[in-house]
Design a protein that fits this description.
Layout: H1 10-31, H2 37-47, E1 68-69, E2 77-78, H3 81-91, H4 95-112, H5 134-141, H6 144-152, H7 155-164, H8 171-198, E3 208-213, H9 217-220, H10 230-234, E4 241-247, E5 269-275, H11 278-286, E6 296-300, H12 307-323, E7 328-332, H13 335-347, E8 350-357, E9 382-389, H14 391-399
Parallel strand pairs: 3-4, 3-6, 4-5, 6-7
Antiparallel strand pairs: 1-2, 7-9, 8-9
Helix pairs in contact: 2-4, 4-8, 6-8
Length: 400
């Protein structure tokens, strides 16, 4: 079927535009990681400096006008009392949510300084099958406050509040914000663990290779070779796990190195990256046996749920995953995006193996500066799994 001609309902199209804009915003924020904290803060804040009422940016205002923040959330901006008054019936529903967004945006600076995420427990005391969500995972970490307090007492925190000129929240608010920011980071390896569970995979009997497709700036800017070491803790004593990040927007760094040709080192996670489209990576390295075939393919917010995403390279990758019957799991920002992505996969005659809310979704709320008074979305909020062709399609081919 020609899925590229599929017409999105208006509501779904609006949702897809919003998800695409969020991905672009996260990539832009990731690109700031090489700058000083003060520069990062100023650039991040500037991207949010527009009137929530009329949409005007500070550069579009007259000399007598200036943008002023809502004193409650410190996130929404207004160019006049009239705009604030007109917007209040809508804004009051989201003001408390936007307060968290504004606070978490500052704590992303801790990540750029290398102080997040916090160190986790050396090895899980329970098998992965018994860790069904963040609540179970946090039990394994012991006292979360004890892990976060050293971060909150660091000079970086003092500098953040000095640069922003904002009142410092109490310790409980700061701890919760730091945890939400950490949850976005840990959501990636934990989603891989969840994908392994869905497909019945574990690295104890043999080494496993995981390909992360569609990797971009959000996953690779400032990436460290230890970013997926939580897999070591989930499977202590394992036979080896290789994680290969593949995408046309992969950023140069220590993870950009050749993938392994065969088995990975025991009890270690080997992280590498390739800059290019996945079907190109497959033809260049996998088919020539310069890279191992994957046991699992994972995509974080691939964005193929719009016709533009398919035309820009996702269709060949999806067909490759289907035809080689590779266990695959993709995540989305929302249930709407997940539902529409499943429609695309059904049109491609994929065998869907599971979908739903991701128990390891990021807890950090995300909103667009251009439309702050909307429900927040969360990274890796939902997931969908597929492998090969639907059974009835295979039967039809056999009958022919």
């Amino acid at each position: 079927p020609d899925v590229r001609r599929h017409t999105e309902p208006a509501g779904q199209l609006h949702a897809m535009d919003r998800q695409r804009a969020l991905m672009e915003l996260k990539a832009a924020m990731a690109a700031l990681a090489s700058r000083s904290q003060k520069e990062m803060f100023e650039q991040m804040e500037e991207s949010y400096r527009l009137c929530a009422g009329c949409g005007k940016r500070s550069t579009q205002l007259s000399q007598s006008q200036s943008l002023k923040r809502c004193v409650r959330c410190l996130n929404a901006n207004y160019c006049s009392k009239e705009c604030q008054k007109t917007d209040w019936p809508k804004h009051k529903k989201f003001c408390s949510q936007l307060r968290l967004v504004a606070m978490d945006r500052l704590y992303v600076l801790l990540w750029s300084a290398g102080e997040l995420p916090f160190p986790t427990a050396e090895a899980w005391s329970r098998p992965p099958g018994e860790v069904r969500g963040w609540e179970d995972w946090l039990v394994l970490q012991g006292d979360l406050s004890a892990r976060l307090q050293p971060l909150l007492l660091s000079p970086t925190i003092h500098n953040i509040w000095t640069h922003t000129g904002r009142p410092q929240p109490d310790n409980q608010d700061m701890e919760q914000s730091a945890w939400r920011v950490c949850s976005e980071f840990f959501s990636r390896p934990m989603s891989i663990v969840w994908g392994m569970r869905v497909f019945g995979l574990e690295p104890y009997s043999k080494p496993l290779t995981v390909h992360l497709v569609g990797a971009g700036q959000a996953e690779t800017m400032g990436a460290r070779l230890t970013d997926y070491d939580e897999l070591n803790r989930a499977f202590p004593g394992h036979q080896g796990v290789e994680v290969v990040l593949v995408g046309p927007e992969v950023v140069d760094g220590p993870v950009v190195r050749p993938p392994l040709r065969a088995f990975g080192p025991k009890r270690r996670v080997y992280l590498s990256a390739y800059k290019g489209l996945y079907h190109q990576f497959w033809e260049e390295l996998v088919e020539t046996e310069e890279a191992a075939r994957p046991d699992l393919v994972v995509g974080f917010h691939p964005g193929f749920a719009d016709s533009q995403g398919l035309e820009e390279g996702w269709l060949p990758t999806l067909l490759l995953l289907r035809d080689y019957e590779i266990p695959s799991m993709f995540t989305t920002f929302s249930e709407v995006e997940m539902t529409y992505s499943m429609q695309i996969l059904q049109e491609l005659e994929m065998d869907l193996r599971g979908s739903g809310a991701n128990p390891f979704a990021s807890l950090k709320p995300e909103v667009l500066a251009s439309n702050p008074n909307t429900p927040a979305v969360f990274c890796n909020s939902h997931y969908l799994c597929f492998q090969g062709l639907k059974e009835n399609v295979e039967l039809d081919q056999e009958e022919d």
